[in-house]
């Protein structure tokens, strides 16, 4: 049996380490050993602490210092530069205006439109003139019918000296048929003037006078005849229902004559223009 020289703990014979203080022991022979010199003081046992095993760490990444934000350089004012004048673009010869107005590119498109507008304006003007003259003549006839004027003093001297028959004396009051005959002659005279404006001549055509504004059949029971001389003048003869008396509208004498006639032939002979010999029936 052995004992620990430090703490005197009883140990087994073959123990090499003290179980109490952990002192390493040297194995010695079983023979008693000679008294040894005093052993030097043994240092206190050091407690071995278990070491903490740290997990492997990732390799540190280099720290990138923050970069300063880019500096914005304000734009520098650019001094204005003189802009050279633009050169006029070359115009092809086909586009250049020509001095001949008959070959302008757009004349073919504008000429029909201008002509149409001119015709519309002319037609409106003719209608206005016809309406105004008809209004004046109708009202003038109504005032004349209330107090018929006597024939002019020189009326007989203006007619043909040998062929002009004696006119019938004017009646004190006109019947409705006679008033219609006079109004129809005034309307027919307005149509003659309109036809002269459009065609530069008078006419005895019923269709032409209808187109010029004559309202055929507006005054029922009237009969009218027309005689013209080109662009000079015209005479109109009419009656109520083809019966006497007959009335004469002479353009050379500026209107409807106050005298009445017993027949159409006598009224035609009283026309101031002896060149008008043929009278065509209109209504």
Task: Tell me about this structure.
The protein is an alpha+beta fold. The chain is built from 5 helices and 7 strands; from the N terminus they run ββααααββββαβ. Strands 6-5-4-3-7 form a 5-stranded antiparallel sheet. β3 (222-229) and β4 (233-240) form a beta hairpin. α1 (107-146) packs antiparallel against α3. The termini are far apart.
Number of discrete helical segments: 5
Radius of gyration based on Cα positions:
71 Å
First-to-last CA distance: 180 Å
What is the number of beta strands?
A: 7
- The geometry reads as rod-shaped
Structural class: alpha+beta
Strand order of the largest sheet: 6-5-4-3-7
Largest sheet entry: 5 strands, antiparallel
Layout of helices and strands, plus pairs?
Blueprint: E1 2-3, E2 10-11, H1 107-146, H2 155-158, H3 176-199, H4 206-211, E3 222-229, E4 233-240, E5 246-250, E6 255-261, H5 264-269, E7 280-281
Antiparallel strand pairs: 1-2, 3-4, 3-7, 4-5, 5-6
Helix pairs in contact: 1-3
Features:
283 residues, 5-stranded antiparallel β-sheet, two-stranded antiparallel sheet, 5 helices, 28% helix, rod-shaped
Concise structural overview:
The chain is α+β, with helices and mostly antiparallel strands.
